[in-house]
Task: structure prediction
Amino acid sequence: MRSPFFPRFFLLFFAMVGLGTAGEVGFNRDVRPILSDKCFFCHGPDAKKREADLRLDVREAALQQEAFVPGKPDESELIARILSTDKTEHMPPAKSKLAALTPEEINTLKQWIAQGAKYEAHWAFIPLSPLALEDPAASPIDLAVAKGLASRGLQFQPEADRTTLIRRVSFDLTGLPPTPEEVDSFLGDPASNAYERLVDRLLKSERYGERMAVDWLDISRYADSFGYQVDRERDVWPWRDWVIGAFNKNLPFDQFITWQLAGDLLPNPTDDQMLATMFNRLHQQEAEGGSVEEEYRVEYVCDRVQTFATAFLGLTFECARCHDHKFDPIAQKEYYQFFSMFQNIDEAGLYSFFTTSPPTPSFGLIDAPTKERLAALDQKVGELEKQATALRAVKERPFTGWLETRSGQPGIPGELARFGFDTVENGKLANSIRADQPATLRGENKLSPGVNGNAIEFTGDDPVDLALGNFKRNEPFSVSLRLKTPDLKERAVVFHRSRAWTDAASRGYELLIEEGKLKWSLIHFWPGNAISIRAKAPVQLDQWTQVTVTYDGSSRADGLRIYIDGKIAPVEVIRDGLTKEITGGGGDNIALGERFRDRGFKGGMIDDFRVFNRDLTAIEALATYEEAAANALFSKPTADLSAADRAALFDYYLAAADPDWALQMAALKETRGEWMKIQDGAREMMVMRELPEPKKAYVLLRGQYDQHTEEVHAGTPAALSPFPDGAPKNRLGLAQWLTDRRHPLTARVTVNRFWQGIFGRGLVKTAEDFGSQGARPLYPELLDWLALHFIESGWDTKGLIKTIVMSRTYRQRSIADGKTMADDPDNEWLARGPRFRLSAEMIRDNALAAAGLLSASLGGAPVNPYEMSEAFKPAAPSGGDGVYRRSIYTNWRRTGPPPAMVAFDAPRRAVCAAKRERTDSPLQALILLNGTQYVEAARVLGEKLHREAKGDVNAMIEQGFMRCLSRKPDERERTIVRQLYTEQLAYFSAKPSEAAELLKTGNAKHDAAIPPDAAAAATVLAQALMNHDACIVKR
Amino acid sequence: MNIPLISSQSASRNPFNRREFLGRFGMGLGAIALADMLPGDASAASDHGVLGAPHFAPKAKRIIYLFMSGGPSQLDLFDYKPLLKERNGEQLPDSIRGSQRLTGMSGNQASIPLVGSPFKFSQHGKSGAWFSDQLPHTAAIADDICVVRSMFSEAINHGPGVTFLQTGSQIPGRPSIGSWLSYGLGQENANLPAFVVLITKNKGGQPLGAHLWGSGFLPARHQAVLLRAAKDPVLYLGNPAGVSDTSRRLMLDRLRELHEHQLQETPDVEIQSRIDQYEMAFRMQTSVPEVADLSGESAEVLDSYGADVRTPGTFAANCLQARRLAEKGVRFIQLYHQDWDHHGGLPSALPAICKETDQPAAALIKDLKQRGMLEDTLVVWGGEFGRTNYCQGKISTNFGRDHHPRCFSIWMAGGGIKPGSVFGETDEFGYNVVSDGVHVHDFHATLLHLLGIDHERLTYKFQGRRYRLTDVEGKLVKGILA
Result:
């Protein structure tokens, strides 16, 4: 692709921007780019890979190794090595595969050494410096640019004409073209501040938020699906609507940052502040069967760090995941300091394949009336619980009477199933409570002598399936069994009611042996939405243990109990937050000894398995262990009862013999049921919720998830501004650090991106990299002024945007004389206004707006425009106005993104993208010419033009230009388009069936009042205008 | 996709050619930059990519990559292990398994019994390479191919596994092999994209995703064009219903006039690009259907690919399509055939999928050879990893095998590959590589080498770093070179 002329051009350019204009060599401007690109890889910040113990990014270190002699380039080793023809001496060495330095680069280095080899701190890390204002009345933007232009012998272009200007600024502020009426009104506005009034009107439009949000969605790698292989759709669009609203309300940008990074850590966070934190959870997530959970969890945290660093620091932090950064002063350890702040949430590395629950942590998005109902029910549950406590006191007396009259043996009511596992018949194991619900022995599991008769001995790969057990979380229930384990199980499933482990996020309930100890849990989504307790003592090996586990229907960890050999077991609480259902996901009945892709109870035995629909009391638990002991206690004379005996009997009395208590419990169960039903119905949004104790963080060797080395704690890089005093060492402190006015990067990076959105390229061209390898700004003082101004304005985004678009720099004509344009094809010097092809979203929205088809509704669930039926994962187009909604609402499925949008360079949203490429390809022309969306829009526009002009071709052309190009046609254009229309009309008049076919494209009805041949010709006329360069390029 | 913005036809049809255009606006020296932006002289037909020319003389000009998605079982196709049959049902010895991580699918199994292949193996060709009886056609071209039995990967699952093979990274988002080639070498035929993807229609199995042929951080024009077995082989290629070529041509002529008029009014190179873009699109409307149309192929050729070839979208039809694209100068032709993921039911499922793929793949080699194209066309057949020597779940007559990245087999042919050879060896359990291991990065380095590219020197600077297909690894596999 390089023409032979390229070097010459480069030379010229170099002469213009480089040494030609400045006698003094600047380290940051001239030298650092060379050293960074050619030397730092081996002689830079990365200590581990440093060659010859030489680092060139720090002057003292370079001097110590005698890399150069200041003032004496000819005696400097650095120069000698670069000039050396000896292959073993020459730098950069052949193995680096880097091209040799050019004579100009060598000359620069020589001059730099000759001038004393002075270093400068990297420009982007230096604090913001105020601009010396020479003319307080003028826009500082224009002052800075004018100065730059003057130094190059250039000047501003005249202001663009009003038709160009309104089209330009309308796209920039709202992403939409002006209507013909808006154009007319602006052209006819005699006020001297007509343009400012236009800008103010656009900034007030709700369309502004939609336009601004698009760029933020690229940064946030926003997508409506999880990505990776399974790529299931997910419900995240309320966050997108929050972003649109935040721009429209002009939420100060420092708060915009803080809410997203750490909304959950603000005092009494609002729903919006919680929702905003979803920013950190929008990365891709995995559910492919068999994946290693920790591997992906680490990947997620790394993605958060990378997104944070690109979005706010403009630094390529991900380079430091595996080793110290090669070019910037970022140690690997510092990467993991950030990592430690972004991992403190109760999450799993895999989302659930078998359920649709969003991965934890999440929070329920509940509307106000529902919130009220929920609060009322919550209160009612609390009252019923209080009443129960009161009732206990009242029942002391009748209990005393009962104590005297009790007789016989304590029965255990509510037993649903009992299995002795003594014989197997046709694979079935008898249930002595309900003969019609036997259990099924699967696979190689076998009967072996147990406690009484036989027991099941498990292979670990086969279950015993029961035919019951689908309890809801408001229903008390208990299970008792005897078990024997041959070895200390790191993990083993004793029994469970669930479809799977990680593949269903363990939805259901389960008794496991974990690290040798019994663990009893009810789970909606492990680990973030569950209650779980674990016995403190390990299970005895190779001997029978009797276990009873109970649950009281409260959704609280204190409603769980484990009894071992009839005695309550001391436990620790592992999780205590269950806010959603435990049913669903499949695997509706209890299974013993095995679970899908989990570790089974290999070599373990189970006997005497019983299921109850009650929260068994202590004496009943004792009875399941040793009936005689329970009987003895039950029949103990009142006088001999210990306090503990009495308490156990009291519980039993209430549970089994007191009708008032039964009524109270029934009421509680019912009210809890209502309360939980509302909770279950709430939409859950993935958010951040800080764990009380930070997880341990380590430097990971080569960035690998399982290679822990040195432990690290929260912190920020030493090369950047200090952490604010007193700020907490968590994400909130991190947000405070970022938005502290001393921070050198946040504001620079942010204003640069806004500038890029308007001018098509940032003042720093590499919006994603403000580091040593990034581009240096041509107007550093302008960047600093904008950044400081932004901070001082209270991070007023609309204000900043207005300041930019009010400037003369912005309002210039975008076309200059040929020489100016050719000398600076990318308009780095800003000697003309912005001009570039519209973004994917704008191109489509523009066509819909021109045709009058664009839906005005704001926000809501994603929709499928026509192109989704052509996507790699095809989806039927949405009904109603779904195909006419703005492109920001297009359903973004990562493995099958909207193909036309991608063809117009929309990023795929797999990772954070700080800028878009702009390419041209014939595929784009095919889309605009043949895509259903565009053909329909042309058809509707054509008919509209025809209708409004009552068939008058000249009027059609006039209006068509206004709608598509926001300007009137000139004579030549009128002639060409008239010819086009005449030709097409003649053609379609001769081919009525083709006209009829064309008029069927899309959902919109053909206007039967217009003759088909005229409508078809008008369609083609509109197509020509919609494919006109001036329709898809902002000028 | 990568299509030059100027081509001979459009330039000759222009009222003023590029040189006049530059002259007209007095763009002296500065116009040189412009010339650089508009690749190729008006008379040149091709775009040479960022490298301009390969680093050294290439052995292959193009690649056809037959990707067998899901992970074909090397133990039932290429890597003959009689020991597994002898020790069928015995547990995999710890000494062989080592500390290798298993997938969560079988990693928690209490029992991991070895399972022998139910298929018959025999040796073929001068190298004596082993093939199972499921690949009779491939066995018959043993003297043309090189079987690599020592491939290994790091990914244990499909998503990351396929992504690794196609982009050099397990995490989606990097440029795919084809987009690197488009970026590096450009395109040969101005009327066709440099990188085309064909996917067997209506196959189940593990899902693929568009990131596999995406361009990552490279410009979007380097991503693949998906050639579909549909009315429009390329997205919106055909005119809309009711628009004939005549009507369209008339409209485009007027549109060009409007653009030329605008260009006279405004010296903006973008307008020239726009004119060329539309002319190019118009030509693609002919060139793509032409290459997609198999009706001109002889009955003999069609029959050689098997009966499926007459059904659009089958692997057989795609193989023939690949040959036609190769003839037209498409640089990288990527086929996918899904559903090799035999966790269960392998003995019955494998024969079925071999029937779909064996004959067409072999026919493609013979067809290329007959046309003298095998010399400079590199063909690759392989999946994202292999399968375990032990059985997933319970051992039974219709057993399955889990994913196995430690070793797997692929074959390569043509374009600088040593024909009739076998490379690399695994242990007698078929579990570990014992000699000549080929890592994914090595494989990529070798592909690029065969196209004349030093894999360390095809780089793209993004976010301050020079990225390449092979990350920071990759060494040339000299043993498979002719």
User: Anything to note?
Assistant: The first strand of chain B starts at residue 62 and ends at 68.
